[in-house]
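Sample A.
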Amino acid sequence: MKQILRKSNILGFVFILIVIAFTFKLSHCLAQGEIKIEKAKKHFDEGVRLYQSGVFSLALEEFKKSYKVRPHWELHYNIGLCYYMMGDYLNAKREFDTYLEEGKENVKPEIAKQIQEVLQNIMTMICEILLEIDVEGAAIRIDGAEIGFSPMSSPIEVKPGEHLIEIVKEGYLPYRNLFVADKGEKRTLIVKLQKYEISKPEKEKQTVENRTVWPYYTGIGFGIVFAAASLGTGILTLQKKQEYNEAKTDYLKLYNKGIATESDYLIAKNKMDDIAKEGKILGTLTTVFLTTGVVLEVVSVTLYLLIGRKKVETKSSTGVLIPSVYFEGEKRGYLELTTYF
């Protein structure tokens, strides 16, 4: 029984601690919330004062600070008014649209009517560009800032003045258009991207004509045959020379020994004459074959270089294609701020 009572006391004590901690946390959160509200109200009141003094840029900063501390949809109206009075109509339109979208039925009818009048006036101060691109998924940039990908169903709103539109997609030539937008202008751009093909310069090609090739190969072939023949006859000529020298040596041996007769002399002389005659014929044939072979080779190579093959130079064109583009073709009142504190 005592153990049960002891456990009950412990649980009760823990419960009390939890309640105290929760209460402290709640008080802390409420205190923090009040501090945020007070800080946001301080920035808001300063923004109102600056706006009424005509210092719209500083008023804008104060309203932004107030929104950062304590975001509220009604602040978009005051921020939009500051942009509007500063002539920054694009940001003003964005803030007013956000105000109407987030506020919905909470927006007072008279305020909604006032905003619609302001928006109508803003549309006369900005330029609308409708892009019609024939390729899907192309990145669209205006003045270096990416705003989306094709296709785009709604027009792009830009300030009056000079702007650069860039449309980029892999595999296509990049499209660029520098233009000047006028107040209230509505413009349609029809862009046809051109496919980008990389053409590499071709190397020199040599084309062979059959009617001029056969003399080259024929001449080369006969030249080789005559060269081989000259080699063979040259070897035979050297052999005949060696035979001539051997016959002469044999006769001189007999002559030196004193045993050579007139008959031996005649036999040796006739033999050497026959060998010399055959060697002379072989030497002449060697010269003729060698000369003919060399001439055929030279003529064949010359014909080949001059008319045997024609060199054809091919050049590739990598000209840039330019996409076709077609074009189709300050009243500002002083407004009252809203308050929500």
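Sample B.
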Amino acid sequence: MGQVFSTTKPESTPLTTSGKRKASFDSSQTLKKACKDATFESATPEVIITEQDVGILAFVNPNLKGFSSIMKYRAEDFLVNEVNLDGKIIRLTSLDPPVIPERQKFFLSDAEFDAKIAGIISPEFAKELRNVLNNPNDITVSARAKKADYSNFNHKNVEKASRIDFYNAIECNLDAPLMTECLEGVLIARWKNPDDTAHTKVGVVKEKPRKINFDITGGEYVSFYVQKSGVDTMGAVNIMANIGGPRFLPKQFSYAGTKDARAVTVQEMTLFKCDPRYLYDVRNELAERQIYIGNFSFANKGLTLGDLSGNHFTIVLSAAQCVLKGTMSLILKKKDNVWLYILRDVNGASEEDIHESLQSLESRGFINYFGMQRFGTSSICTHEIGRALISLKFAEAADLVLMPRDGDRADFAAARNHWAETKDIKSTLDKLPRQAHTERKLLSSYLRFDNQHEKAFNSLPQHMLSLYYHAYQSYIWNCAVSERAKIYGCDKPVVGDLVLVDGPEKSNNNSNNNNKKYGNAGRRDHSSRKVPKVLTEEDLDNYTIWDVVYPMPGSRSKYPANAIGDFYKQLLEKDNINIKNAQQHFKKLMGDYRPMMVKPKNVGWKFIRYDNPETKLFNTDYDRITSVPEPVSVPNGKYLGLAVELTLGTSQYATMALREVMRSDTSAKAQARNVHT
């Protein structure tokens, strides 16, 4: 087959997008201090990926003054409350035990009850049961009988559904503590006797909670709210399942979205056909792990990924420094998709400057860029790997994933260097840390497919490939919109722009399957009947800048009919992607459309004062339930703060709204260099 992997160790990291700057460190070790909870130190100089590297270049109002600050310094600095599809903010408001609905009893006459049992089982069965009921004090037969011969009455060949109907009839229509059992297909009913154990079914059981009848709860799913910190959503699910023992498994939990570990998050979860009382019983053990549960109810439908309209955020930006005047820090909240920023220690910045910035954000909005989190934190951005894959350069993509890179922690760097020197798959797998999921998966695929690059990549899990594909789509979109802002500005539509209009619904099973498999960066529902329209001169008065959309590249994407369309073509051709042959490169992605601009709603702001820099300026949901006093503004406080609120829609990045006002790089590495002094 020939040499598949190059055995020449590169002198440096494979070429990536230009513009990265290596961080310089002084004796204060600021990055190490900001990341003091990191377990491993970097083995090579850190490389900072900037907004410019991923196409984030323009501002709506380039004349605004800005400031910098620290984001997400602690988990408590980042609060997330899920917003459901109805627009309700998921807030933990109750720690009360779950209320289990009891079946309403409707006592029947003897004749009515006998007729009901005859219809469920048989007339003969009903007669035998009536004989038992007419002799409530006679337990001698069942008391003396062997367990296999319990036969006050029995009826063989009873289907499970009939047994369930029978049990329900006993519970709802009979005011008597009748014992019921099904042994080896034989349904048995009798009166309780002294030899009965707690495991024998009875109309009134004191030893354990009565089994839940989901027919009367309103649904087979238990809904509850979870506040957690220090663990991601899947980790919280595993903890609940482990502490709860065999009564519920991780696969029985479902949720609308995954939440980060480095945050205090509140979200709804559903649990299929489980007794919530068992979950409630382990609440104290969960609380020891910073997991709090409450707001129990029943639902007829479980949650699936995507069943949310947004998130409500509270973000603390601390030790902020005004670019022109003084220092600030900032908190961001979001409720009902409403974000609330609280800026700490506003020192030396004029209120007029702040008013001007926020008024501009309110009236002119911000560019709807894909934020830095879309592109990862490594010196090799995810969109660069996506570029290689979409360009069908699988060997290059393998190098980008596996070869040494700047900023790696020591154990990763050692494994990558070993790979660069030996190209030995098995020994490299032995050296890679367990956390190197992608690298380990890829090398294992090379073993499986005898070093065939394309087959190895295509065998990776869908979510891994989607990460790279979507990052490249997002990068191209960011670059195109920056060029649009540069050439045409951000105030109005121009000839050749795209807007979405109603169109005929079309289906293509093969394309739909591909799109469902890999998704798109913009996540627009492709079952919708919206189609792109190219604006003409006559259309301009009918649309505003808020209607303008720009495409993520894909096999079915339509491009603007102006200079930006040409820019898309040039940008893709630079990456060896021909728009006319898009199906070859984007066969797994149909493409999508994303609004160019975002205009926040309900924008408002106010100033607040406090004395202690460590003052808590907000409470978590659990704090409020447990009556922790709400923070209040201190009259004549030493420090001046500013609270700002605004409403954002889904799929919009709060960091990009912050960027328009702050004028500072929002990348994680750049933020890590800003520390308290």
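B remarks: The two ends are 59 Å apart (CA to CA). Residues 88-97+223-299 form a domain with the Alpha-Beta Plaits fold (CATH 3.30.70.3160).
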